[in-house]
Amino acid sequence: MLFWLVLLVILIVSDFSHLGWPLVLFQKSVDIIFYAIMIYINLLYLIPMFLSRKKFWTYVALLLLTVLVLTPIKIAIQVYLFAETPSFQNYLLANQSYFFMSMFLVGSSSTIYGILSDWFIHQSEKMELQTQTMQSELKFLRSQINPHFLFNTLNNLYALTLKKSDDAPEIVLKLSEMMRYMLYECNEKQVLLSKEVAYMKNYLDLERLRQHETIDLTFNLKGDISEQKIAPLLLIPFIENSFKHGPSSQINHGWVKIDLEVEGNRLLFSVENSKGPSQPRMIHRKSGGIGLVNVRRRLNLLYDDKYKLDISNQPNSYQISLVLNL
After folding, report:
1. The Cα angle at residue 84 between residues 78 and 85, in degrees rounded to 5
2. Helix, strand or coil, per DSSP, at residue 219
3. Contact between 309 and 320 (Cβ < 8 Å)
4. Residue 320: pLDDT above 60?
5. Which of 80, 110, 138 is the last residue of a domain?
6. Is the Cα torsion angle 143, 144, 145, 146 positive or negative in sign?
7. Is 295 exposed, middle or buried (0-12, 13-18, 19+ CB in 10 A)?
8. pTM, whole model, 2 decimals?
9. H or E element in which residue 142 lies
10. What are 22-71's pLDDT values in tens digits?
11. Are residues 152 and 270 in the same domain?
12. Among 85, 114, 138, where does a domain finish?
């Protein structure tokens, strides 16, 4: 409605000086009605039925035909309505080419509007689909994070209960805290880094209990983690990988060193573990196992170019270094 009112004012002002107020208002109101008919025929019928279906020349022919039909009808109606004003009738008949051109320009403008509108709608739907696809993929990747750890922990818990070990209650408590975090707090896009670190510490405590004195484990934390946020369960696959392919597979005493530092909005995270003689090339590829493939995919989806991941596979050690802009 606002569009048509603005257009009416523009048309009235353009001819007011030489036609006068009453004639201009009445004549331009008729113009607006026919322009609206032209636009809606184009937007609701011609563009969907022909232009959108790649029938370009048929569309152009029908658009011109619509102009050639509507314009004479508009002029005839205006001549009839202003029968008692010969000077105005003469004005209408003398400017027929102008009226044809105006109708064509209105039709062409509505074509441009229709094309742009369809493009923006298509882009919006495409972005929404991409977002939904990305969210589905992220949920799938997140769901694959911890099954083998949970399985191993339950097996160890079962073994400890058979031995009536004093460590069993502590394992149950820490495992319940981890499950609570995974089930109730990891559904958000981001969580507090402090909660993620607490989850990591519980994981490391369980590994200490599971492996007893067979591993030298250090975890160094530096910087303020109370306010920063991070995607949930993003760092834990690196730690899981260090145990899965590192000390737990060694006969001799192994080690894992973890460093996490926050500098402003930047996170520096590194995990390094020892390798046994039976692991000359670790997992035989630089990118790591399926866990690291998944976490790299999550990094690409969530942080795009805001991170840097380096992997160093040495004869006696394996290290990942992650720099992340939070």
Report:
1. 70
2. strand
3. yes
4. yes
5. 138
6. positive
7. buried
8. 0.58
9. helix 96-143
10. 666 677 778 888 889 999 999 999 999 998 888 999 999 999 999 999 98
11. yes
12. 138
